[in-house]
Every structure is written in structure tokens, then in C-alpha cells.
Amino acid sequence: MKKLLFVCILMSCSVAVLPGCGDDDDGGSGDIDTDTDTDTDTDADTDSDTDADTDTDSDTDSDTDSDTDTDTDEECPPTDCTGADMWFDDISCLCWQNPSTTLPLDSMTGGISLCAALTLGGFTWELPTIDQVRSLIRWDTCVTDCGCEENVPGGACGVTAESPACLEGHPLDTCETYCEDCTWAEGPGALGCYWDAAILGTCMGATVRSSSVQSNDTTRGWGVTFEFGNVQDGPNANNGWIRCVRVES
User: Fold this and answer.
1) Neighbour-count burial of 12, counting CB atoms closer than 10 A to its CB (0-12 exposed, 13-18 middle, 19+ buried)
2) 48 domain-assigned
3) Which of 146, 126, 150 is nearest to 231 (CA)?
């Protein structure tokens, strides 16, 4: 009987304890901590920096530097200045009379007539301007005193048919001041003439005549003394070497 009573008391106690499971924190806090911590941290770090780095710098750098470096160095068109007693200057692109015999000596007026009457190669010829005569100067073989380098076209010598004010003669003006000599006969031509070695004839003893006259005295004209490579003036009536240039059409 005592045993039975003890069992009953024990069962009652168990029933009384079950509802709280020993946790007397009223509020029945099953405290299931629903903080499922989904914190999905979507930082998938897609970092789509595709960085294909296409670097389209095609760098065509076509550097079209055609190097036109025209020291008067322009390309000359094809020429028919190829016959006997003619010479083609591939710097100025001019066709010159270049006789194997000695050039005539004449005054400016006589030179104009001689060139107009010339029928060499079936072409028309004329007495050259001072600019055209200056284009014949070559001074690169000069070794001592080479002031005539200023007498080539584009040099400091201001005597030019395109600037009448610079065609004044004596007294010397600023244009003529820079028209200096080179040392006698150190040019590349025969006898040391300051012209191309392909040019025939002599330059000694006279000026090669031009058709350009002084703007303040039309009785005086300009020419080049090729034994010195210098530009100078003189009376039109004086004789000079006559070398004709072809009239370009």
C-alpha cells in the first residue's frame, strides 16, 4: 500500500512539471530564435569589370611625312628638254640653252633679240630674269670665303624681279648689300665656275646677262658673274654672256 501511494505521488509530480519543462521564464519563451540569419549577402561580387581592355588605339600613325623637303627641291614634271645643246635643271625645273660652242657676248638688247630668234628644239626661248639666272648658282664646293651662298634663290640677296624696289643699283641699298662674292673660281663647274658641272662654256671675264633692269635707272641691268658667284649690275650696253632659257607654256 505504501508502495502504491509512492507511485501515485511520483506520477502527479511528473504531470505538474511537464508544462514548463523546468523553464519558469513566464512567456513560455520557446525562444525559437526565428532570426534565420538569411543575411544572403548578395554581394555575389559579380565585379563585371569585363576589362576586355580592347585598347582600340589602332595606332595607324601613318606618318605621311612625304618629306617634301623642297630646298627648291620640288619634283619636276617629265621633261622633253633632252636634245643637243640643251640642259634641264632638275632643281629649278628650267630648260637652258647649253651650247657646246662658246656663248655669244652681247648687250641686254642684243641678248633679248638673240634669244627671241632661237629655235633650238623647236621651242620658244627668251633672255632669263635675274631670278632665273640666280637659280644656276652652285656654291657647295666653295671652301674659303663663301658669301655667294646668299645669292641663290631664297638667300639674303634681295635683288629679284619680283621686288622692283630691290632692283635699285648704286648707291648700294640694303637689298644689294647681302649679294656677296665667293672666292674666285672654287665652284663645281669647269674652270671653277659657280654653276652645275654639266653646264658647258666659260663664265670668265663677263657677267651672264638677265632681262631685269634697275627700278631707278632702266639703262642699267642685273646679271651674275659666275667666276665669283655674285649678283651685280652694269650698263645695259655692256656685253655679257647670253644664255637663253626656254619659255614654259
Assistant:
1) exposed
2) no
3) 150
35 pLDDT higher than 80: no
- Tell me if the pTM is above 0.85: no
Q: Is residue 19 part of a domain?
A: no
Q: Using one digit for the tens of pLDDT, what is the confidence trace for 61-103?
A: 444 443 333 344 568 989 999 989 999 999 999 999 999 888 9
The domain of 209 spans: 103-117+129-242
Number of domains comprising the chain: 1
- Report which of 246, 244, 248 is spatially closest to residue 112, judged by C-alpha positions: 244
> Distance of alpha carbon 74 from its chain centroid, rounded?
12
Q: What share of the chain is helix, strand, coil (3-state, %, to 5)?
A: 20, 15, 65
Q: Does residue 95 lie in a domain region? A: no
Q: In whole angstroms, give the CA distance from residue 148 to residue 236.
A: 23
